[in-house]
Amino acid sequence: GIQVEQSPPDLILQEGANSTLRCNFSDSVNNLQWFHQNPWGQLINLFYIPSGTKQNGRLSATTVATERYSLLYISSSQTTDSGVYFCAVLGQGGSEKLVFGKGTKLTVNP
Amino acid sequence: DGGITQSPKYLFRKEGQNVTLSCEQNLNHDAMYWYRQDPGQGLRLIYYSQIVNDFQKGDIAEGYSVSREKKESFPLTVTSAQKNPTAFYLCASSAQTVLYGYTFGSGTRLTVV
Known about the structure:
The structure holds two protein chains of two kinds. By secondary structure, chain A is an all-beta fold. Helix content of chain A is 0%, strand content 60%. By secondary structure, chain B is mainly beta. Chain B has strands spanning 4-7, 10-13, 19-25, 31-37, 43-51, 54-57, 64-66, 76-78, 87-94, 103-104, 108-112. Chain A binds chain B through residues 4, 30-31, 33, 35, 40-45, 48, 86, 88, 90, 96-98, 100-103, and chain B through 31, 33, 35, 37, 40-45, 48, 50, 56, 58-59, 88, 90, 92, 97-104, 106-107, 109.
């Protein structure tokens, strides 16, 4: 099945810093989502982005489907950005299952 | 407000017991999913259902069972056959698997005592 790798596994920032999280996937995809899991376990959908670029406030994401990767940018990070960021993909070829990477754990210090 | 409700938030199970986790959605979504998350790990798919009265096994279905008698409900039973059930369980739904994103519930944390 399709493989999803996220990097880095851990990231520590000072408040106000910018960061880039990466998601590589092994095959063509129909669906790619970025999620933020807060300290209470809730998964929040950040972007649905199988291709192209989207922005939402301080967050933006770019997926280059032909090169099989997606990037999540966080600018001017805040302590509330802390948590785990997951990339999840739905492969082409009839797959009905969203496959998750292992996540990037982000800690933003004041 | 539309959303997904999981209950209970915390659940304790004794060895040898079956327990059922509830998942209800009022988003009118066709598809529903159950994922398991272990500490420091990503999410792994247990079962999913695309229509009422139909469901398929995911990657780690052994020791679990589900039903989909109503569109809005997809309960998960953790049976005594599941040898390591302590985990965080997340339910999700989507309108269509390909074109739309997933919405997740807030999860149930199950602990074996």
